[in-house]
Amino acid sequence: MAIHTRKNTEKIPEPTLRRLPWYLSNAKLMREKGEKYVSSTQISKQINIDASQIAKDLSYVDIAGRTRVGYDIDLLIQVLEDFLGFTNMHKAYLFGVGSLGGALLRDSGLSHFGLQIVGAFDVNPDLVGTKINGIPIYHSDDFEKRMKLDGVNIGVLTVPIAIAQEISDKMIAGGIKAIWNFTPFRIRVPENIVVQNTSLYAHLAVMFNRLNETIKK
Ligand SMILES: NC(=O)c1ccc[n+]([C@@H]2O[C@H](COP(=O)([O-])OP(=O)(O)OC[C@H]3O[C@@H](n4cnc5c(N)ncnc54)[C@H](O)[C@@H]3O)[C@@H](O)[C@H]2O)c1
Question: Single GO molecular-function term (predicted)?
C-alpha cells in the first residue's frame, strides 16, 4: 500500500535543505550495495538522524514511501537530485585564484553537485592566460566582456577581504545574481541578489569545542 504523504508546500527550512544531500549520498551508497528500497529508519541508522525528522524532510520533496519497504531508491535519488538542482549544471565564475580559489578550481566534486566553474578572474600576470583543471583564468578587466559570452549567473568570491565589496559590486553590475562568498566580509547586496556565506573555520571551531569536551571526560 502506498502512503500518499501530501507534499509539504511550506517554504523549505534551511536545515532541511542542508540535510537532503546527506540522504542523497546515503541512497546512492545503498544503491551501490544492490538495495532497491530504503526506509527512513534505515537511513536514520546510517546517518544518525531521527527517522521522523527524515520523513518530515522528505515530505518537502515529491516522493511517497511504501509501508514496510520504504522509498524506491532510484526514484528517491532522481527526485532529490532534481529538487536540489544537482542535475542541471549551474555555471559559475570564480574571482581570486589564490590558495583557496585555486583549490576550488581543482575540486572536481563541485560539478557532481551541479556547480560548473567555467572561468576564473585574477589580476596576477603569472596566472592570467593559464588554466587550472581546464578552467581558463582571465584578467578581472575582461569580466564584462566574458559575461556576454558565457551565460553565467553565479560568482564565487575568493579575493582578499579588503576588495570583497568592490568585486561583489562589479559582479552584480555585470549581471551576477548569486554570490558564494568565502571571504569573512559581510558583503552588502541589493535585495534580489542571493548571497551564501561559507567558512571552513566555523566548522573547525565546533570541532575544537567538541574535542575539548571529549578530552575532559
Ligand atoms: N571561507 C573560508 O573557509 C576561507 C578559507 C580560506 C580563505 N578564505 C578567504 O578567501 C579569500 C582568499 O584567501 P586566499 O588565502 O586564497 O588568499 P590569496 O592571497 O592566496 O588569494 C587571493 C587572490 O585574489 C587575487 N586578486 C587580487 N585582486 C584581485 C582582483 N581585483 N580581481 C580578482 N582577483 C584578485 C590575488 O591575485 C590572489 O590570487 C580571503 O578573503 C580569505 O579570508 C576563506
Answer: DNA binding
Distance of CA 194 to the CA centre of its chain: 13
Residues 117 and 198 in one domain: yes
97 and 165 fall within a common domain: yes
Is position 52 within any domain? yes
pLDDT tens string 132-159: 999 999 999 999 999 999 989 999 999 9
pTM of the model: 0.83
Q: For residue 102, which atom of ligand 1 is closest to its CA?
A: 16
**Using a 6 Å cutoff on CB, does residue 26 contact ligand 1?**
no
Domain range for 80 is 14-84
Number of domains observed in the structure of the chain: 2
Residue 211 lies in a domain: no
Is 96 labelled a binding residue? Answer: yes
C-alpha cell at 63: 516522493
- 98 C-beta closer than 6 A to ligand 1: yes
Q: For the domain that residue 144 is a member of, what is the CATH number?
A: 3.40.50.720
CA separation (Å) from 140 to 66, 95, 202?
53, 8, 29
**ipTM higher than threshold 0.95:** yes
